[in-house]
Design a protein that fits this description.
D-Maltodextrin-Binding Protein, domain 2; globular; 2 domains; 14% strand; 13 helices; alpha/beta
């Protein structure tokens, strides 16, 4: 056989093999389309908190390139605000946006994520404890203890919340005696210890209850939420600063089965996207809360007062008594509190020694004796 014929034979043989391989190759499977999730928040649609929930969903939806589509409904669309944990656990909802203290009735230790003084930590430091100090593992253990079929991502550290809205300024501890007061979480026990008659209500029901006289006073969260929900329509007195919710954060919650079925890449996007949403929420809060704080004073004629030190000190004393009692009743409560205390002892010492008190700088630039800023 000539060299030319041999080459031609090899070429034809190779082409036949390639053709056979092409025929034998499996057909390309078409993409199944985006994964859809139906969520609910624990907030009314007009609250900035529901806006945060929508912000979170948009971030995750965008980061997955539309492969995941989270739809967030407002409180009550599927279940009441306090029913979110059960609904997500059962799969009635795929996920939700709320706060851990709303699950206080299921397991009191859940309120340690934000309901109380945080052992001198702010909410961002409590988030640090959660991620790096053992809180994440303890929360998983806690949810497992009550059979909650959920995956939880605390995020979005909140600024210190006001003592609340009152008919007249609070000047002493005794002023709280006998007041019909709204709060949630461990704060229920704290305000009861201060003599108040406490009623735990979700955010969307507070103003109506005050308007009907079912509440004498109430706390919710911040200048923007309080203004949007209409607190200034039923009260013109707001007491700023409190230890009852000094270190709270939000919670992103997935049904565990739904979450576990997601691709690993999507889980990574959710984990990192949650942290991005957490920081963005903090930035938005500073901008919006400060604007609404001004509006409440100038447009709504609200008068703000600082909570007296005697009231703050009494909060700490009662909180310690409540924690001691809960710890004796609940081993997991004690384990979590001990973990927070150990982390807070070194973290707050570092903070107190390192971070300059900005009050001097504030007075220098904006205080009553401040000189015009030269530019």
């Amino acid at each position: 056989m000539s060299e030319r014929a041999n080459s031609r034979r090899k070429f034809l043989k190779g082409a036949a093999v390639a053709t056979a391989a092409t025929v034998a190759a499996p057909a390309v499977v078409k993409a199944q389309g985006p994964i859809s999730m139906r969520w609910q928040s624990t907030w009314p649609s007009k609250d900035i908190f529901h806006e945060y929930a929508l912000d979170f969903a948009k971030k995750i939806n965008d980061m997955t390139g539309g492969d995941l589509k989270i739809e967030v409904l407002p409180a009550g669309a599927v279940v009441p605000a306090f029913g979110l944990l059960e609904a997500v656990s059962k799969g009635t909802l795929d996920g939700g946006h709320g706060v851990l203290v709303y699950h206080y009735g299921k397991q009191t230790a859940l309120a340690l994520w934000g309901s109380g003084p945080g052992y001198a930590m702010d909410a961002n430091m409590l988030m640090s404890w959660h991620k790096y100090g053992g809180g994440k593992e303890l929360l998983e253990k806690l949810y497992a203890s009550i059979g909650a079929n959920v995956v939880s991502f605390p995020y979005g550290p909140m600024p210190t919340q006001p003592l609340g809205w009152f008919k007249k300024p609070v000047t002493k501890v005794e002023d709280l005696q006998g007041l019909k007061f709204r709060t949630v979480g461990i704060s229920i026990d704290v305000f009861q210890g201060m003599g108040a008659a406490v009623n735990a209500l979700p955010g969307g029901e507070i103003v109506a209850a005050m308007d009907r006289g079912l509440l004498d006073a109430a706390e919710f969260n911040n200048a923007s939420s309080d203004r949007l929900l209409g607190f200034a329509d039923v009260s013109k007195i707001c007491m700023l600063q409190s230890y009852h919710q000094n270190a709270e954060q939000f919670e992103i919650m997935f049904n565990k089965d739904k979450y576990n079925a997601l691709p690993d890449k999507m889980k990574a996007i959710i984990a990192n996207g949650t942290e991005a949403a957490s920081q963005d929420m903090s930035w938005k809060a500073i901008d919006r809360y400060s604007k609404d704080y001004v509006e409440l004073q100038t447009k709504d004629k609200v008068r703000f007062y600082k909570t007296p030190d005697a009231v703050l000190k009494r909060q700490l004393e009662i909180y310690d008594d409540v924690v001691a009692k809960k710890s004796a009743e609940n081993p997991l409560f004690k384990e979590i509190a001990q973990s927070q205390i150990a982390f807070a002892k070194r973290a707050t010492q570092w903070e107190q020694d390192t971070v300059v008190n900005r009050k001097m700088a504030f007075d220098h630039y904006f205080g009553p004796q401040a000189k015009p800023i030269r530019l």
